[in-house]
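I am writing to request your help with a piece of structural work I have in hand. The matter concerns a single protein, recorded as an amino acid sequence and a row of backbone structure tokens. Could you please explain, in whatever detail you think fit, how the structure tokens follow from the sequence? Thank you for your consideration; the sequence and its tokens are set out here:
>
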Amino acid sequence: MEMQDLAGKVAIITGAGSGIGEATARALAARGVRVVLAGRRADPLEALATSLGAEHAIAVPTDVARAADVQWLIERTLSHFGRVDILFANAGQFVQGAVANVEIEQLVAQIDTNLIGVVRCIKAVLPSMIAQRFGDILVTSSISGHTDIDNEAVYSATKHAVGTLVNILRRETAPQGIRVATISPGIVLNEIWGVTDPADVAAGLAAHRGLSSEDVADLVVYMLAMPARVTIRDVVVMGQGQII
């Protein structure tokens, strides 16, 4: 099977300041993709953009839950690179705990980021992708979007909703040459799981307790590089030792 050459494409990556988003930005940039780095924290975005080089990356601080931020993200991308070929809607919030024990603001914030933010970003890129009659929209879901996990009621609900959104959107946009898919990781040994020490990451990987951010990034690149005729609709990926 002949894979697509991704060089020269333009990708927006939300949640790019750390974890899966950062690893994916590095992996795509290594394939010649020009990346737009979006996230709420400006400093790590700027540092990542600098490391990737001004020709290949720009940082656009963005809170996907804010309509004005998402609009500026798209405008900045189009003004700088001229088009959008890939949206990796990866930004997310994760809070564990029984609903009765979690503050309502934290519960709502998960919905605003994990679901409403994804909708905002998709809606913003669709006009450009429909006009050029191609594009890839890939959304980070979770294994929690495929099964009901205790102490993750709202988080799991947002990820189940994302799965439905993506599957219907895929059918809506297929005639315009747009591919839409989800990637659903299990435990990823990174900041969102509170694992930041490289030694702890290495130990977790050696014990098969989880994935690295780079594992997920490599799978994202593989999905995007598949021939245009191929859509990988949903991928669930987890550490071999994660039993669920």
